[in-house]
UniProtKB/TrEMBL annotation:
Domain of life: Bacteria
Listed name of the protein: HTH araC/xylS-type domain-containing protein
Transmembrane segments: 20-41, 304-322
SMART domains: HTH_ARAC (SM00342)
Protein source organism: Paenibacillus nasutitermitis
GO MF entry, a single one: DNA-binding transcription factor activity
Length: 771
């Protein structure tokens, strides 16, 4: 009896091997057909979801742009209602007082609105610009399009943002500003008198940052002619018609206000979503690479692979019990798979099993890779929903099924109130790309530790907000104090990971709709690091109770006292006043403090511009204005230290200017007074200005050298001249008073009587009788 034995390896030409090869080919073909069907179905779902998500983002950004437009419109209306601004707009010339007042009002607009670049007043009759730029420049040289924009605005018949460039050289450095101008006229009719409010283009780029940056997705704003105004992936593509892709032309030609379609951009297939803003005549568009959409869930593909493998295994086992001769024709299939010609009597070769093993390993590796990519994609989509939730940009209102959408992505917050915690890892370089992967691992480790520390909470979710920061959303149980819980958590992180953190604790959110408020309050609480840098926990509720915020009042009285002390070289008083000034500022909110610091820097530079040279001080900080220097400091104590350095610099400059001989200055003053004492407008200020020194210093110098005040000295000269005129002429008292600088005759009589013991007429009569 002949016994058939299985061999460790099968001959390449055996019937059993042919059957195995045929089953393998059929299995692989079926696997790919089913996977392709599922892939197409999943892709359609992803395309729809991504399109809807970007439609929401574009509508939210469009609403933000409309809000920005309204804010600028309100600024323009306020300027049009200001009589000083209108006077400056229509006047052919302004006196120094009106010019200074107008300059301050224009600068106040810049200081109060960080999105505003500059303000122009354009007089079409004189072709003259009044502007808010720091340096004294000709608008026509730095903004040659400005005059033409007035005509363009008149031709439009309505106000829209008009994009253009400022280009100029200042202090040997080249500047190029991309700006958007909103041009106001006093009436809707065409006018040659206009107010320009120029916005920074970065105000649009910041909106792109809020939508999130991705290498697979880009955002664009283009006008109705297809010219690019702003683009997230190409910040330099400004007013560049060639930078617009072919899809922009299709968007413009579509005639629809909002839609999406698939097209090729930059050589790759993309899903294109757009909306139209008819108020500004802008298209807001998003292009997402189609390859990114295919990275969706592959759970079904995995199941298909598992089932197919089981079916194949069953077929292979059954094959061992079947007659091998019936599978002869299938032997050619394996040859076709390997690309060889079929043969009738192949030699014995054991490499077929190794070949099939490699096929299966490659296939399983691809499926595993797809599963990993799908997991990352689900994680990104989940984090996108949470960011949507925290930003409060209309998602919950747009979709009534938003809670169910959160649950479908594994986000369950339960029934307890929620709270947002903003975490910042200390000692991390925010701009260091090379540290990105390391910081990502650190963030994940901190989050894993948070899951263990806060295990009793119903839910806890993490949202990355930067290299060095992220946000935790968790249930806020009533019996716990958030500060105590976070202290415990920070101790665990520091002990186990060696990481220092600062945490901003937001206010309590009773519902999902309250999470944007909790997020905003957590960020606001962290901003108080500017005032109290030594804290680790910044609790919004505690800060509000501690600060007891009052309506902000700029410490103008202390500021004026400080300026006077500086001009008198009183360093002791300067230090004391500066300390009191910062103590008074520290009792206000961070936003008010920063605004007050920028305002004070502007005032100091204006007050001492003609008396002190700030060039070397500014150069040491690589800045052009004191406002720029103040804005770089992250902490209030650093700003206070800089102000100490600043007043030392000013006092040193004033002293260097006073090295001249004091007696020489007094002699020059006496000569000047002797020539002008009969003028009614003679004052200590005018004499000090003639000498090039400050009025307080002049008064002090005059008193020390002559032993009399400036007023007594001038009065003495005038009285001596009055006596001469009374005796030598027949002029009446009023005419004599006017000749020696007294506009008011009654006041002249009073002063004369006080100095000479009698009235002018009595003096004249007595002297003439005695002679």
């Amino acid at each position: 009896m002949k016994i058939w034995k299985l061999k460790p390896s099968l001959p390449r030409g055996s019937y059993l091997f042919r059957f195995i090869a045929a089953n393998t080919v059929v299995f692989v073909l079926c696997l790919f057909i089913l996977a392709a069907v599922n892939y197409t179905f999943t892709n359609m779902i992803s395309e729809k979801q991504i399109s809807e998500a970007h439609q929401r983002l574009l509508h939210q950004t469009d609403a933000s742009i409309d809000n920005l437009y309204e804010r600028v419109f309100q600024i323009g209306e306020q300027l049009l209602s200001d009589k000083d601004v209108i006077k400056g707009l229509y006047s052919t010339g302004l006196d120094p007082g009106d010019s200074l007042s107008l300059d301050r009002k224009l600068r106040d607009v810049i200081n109060a609105n960080d999105f505003v670049n500059s303000v122009y007043l354009y007089n079409g009759t004189t072709k003259r610009f009044i502007h808010s730029l720091q340096q004294d420049v000709d608008i026509a040289s730095i903004d040659p399009e400005a005059s033409g924009l007035v005509q363009a605005r008149n031709n439009l018949g309505k106000m829209i943002f008009l994009p253009h460039k400022q280009e100029y050289t200042y202090n040997g450095k080249r500047y190029e500003n991309r700006i958007l101008s909103l041009i106001f006229t006093e009436t809707d009719a065409k006018s040659d008198y206009a107010i320009f409010i120029n916005l920074k283009l970065t105000s649009l780029q910041e909106l792109f940052d809020e939508m999130g940056q991705s290498s697979d997705s880009s955002f664009m704003i283009a006008d109705k002619n297809g010219v690019v105004i702003a683009r997230s992936d190409q910040p330099d593509a400004f007013l560049d018609s060639s930078a617009s892709q072919s899809f922009v032309e299709k968007v413009i030609q579509s005639g629809t206000l909002s839609d999406s379609f698939v097209d090729a951009t930059n050589g790759s297939k993309s899903l294109l979503t757009y909306i139209y803003n008819d108020k500004l005549e802008w298209y807001l568009a998003n292009a997402t690479r189609y390859a990114y959409l295919t990275k969706d869930s592959f759970i079904l593909q995995r199941n298909i692979v598992v089932v197919s493998l089981l079916v194949l295994l069953v077929c292979l086992i059954a094959t061992f019990f079947m007659n091998r001769k019936i599978y002869g024709p299938i032997s050619n299939v394996i040859r076709m798979v390997k690309g060889a010609a079929p043969v009738q009597s192949p030699p014995d070769n054991a490499d077929d099993a190794e070949y099939l093993s490699g096929v299966f390993k490659s296939l399983i590796g691809k499926v595993s890779s797809l599963e990993d990519t799908s997991s990352e994609d689900r994680k990104r989509l989940k984090e996108g929903l949470l960011k949507d939730l925290l930003m409060g940009q209309g998602t919950m209102e747009d979709r009534h099924d938003f809670p169910q959408l959160l649950e479908r992505h594994g986000i369950r917050f339960g029934t307890h109130p929620l709270r947002v915690f903003a975490l910042v890892l200390e000692g991390s370089d925010r701009s260091a790309e090379e540290q990105g992967e390391r910081l990502k691992l650190v963030r994940e480790a901190v989050f894993e530790l948070a899951l263990r520390v806060f295990h009793e909470f119903e839910a806890i979710e993490k949202v990355d907000t930067g290299y060095h920061s992220f946000v935790l959303i968790m249930s806020d149980l009533p019996e716990h104090a958030p500060g105590a819980i976070m202290n415990t958590f920070m101790q665990q992180v520091e002990r186990m990971l060696g990481i220092h953190m600062k945490i901003g604790i937001g206010c309590r959110a009773e519902t999902l709709q309250g999470l944007p408020g909790s997020m905003a309050s957590a960020k606001e609480a962290l901003s108080y690091e500017f005032i109290w840098p030594d804290l680790c926990l910044y609790d919004y509720d505690t800060i509000n109770n501690r600060n007891n915020p009052q309506p902000f009042r700029y410490p103008a009285r202390l500021e004026r006292t400080l300026f006077d002390a500086i001009k008198l070289n009183d360093e002791t008083s300067v230090r004391r006043i500066l300390r009191d000034w910062f103590e008074e500022l520290a009792n206000n909110s961070v936003a008010d403090i920063r605004g007050a610091l920028l305002q004070s820097a502007f005032r100091i530079e204006n007050e001492f511009r003609g008396l002190a040279d700030f060039t070397t001080l500014l150069a040491s900080y690589d800045k052009h204005t004191l406002e720029d220097v103040v804005s770089i400091f992250p902490r209030l104590d650093e700003v206070e230290s800089f102000y100490g350095e600043l007043v030392n610099h000013i006092i040193a400059e004033l002293r260097n200017d006073r090295h001249r001989d004091a007696s020489g200055l007094v002699n020059q003053a006496c000569d000047y007074i002797g020539q002008h004492y009969t003028q009614s407008d003679l004052s200590a200020d005018s004499v000090a200005a003639h000498l090039g020194i400050t009025a307080p210093y002049f008064s002090k110098l005059f008193n020390e050298n002559l032993g009399v005040s400036f007023t007594h000295y001038v009065t003495g000269l005038r009285m001596k001249e009055a006596e001469n005129l009374l005796l030598a002429t027949n002029l009446n008292v009023k005419e004599i008073g006017e000749r020696i600088g007294f506009v008011n005759s009654s006041y002249f009589i009073t002063v004369f009587k006080k100095n000479c013991g009698s009235s002018p007429n009595q003096y004249r009569q007595m002297k003439r009788k005695s002679s």
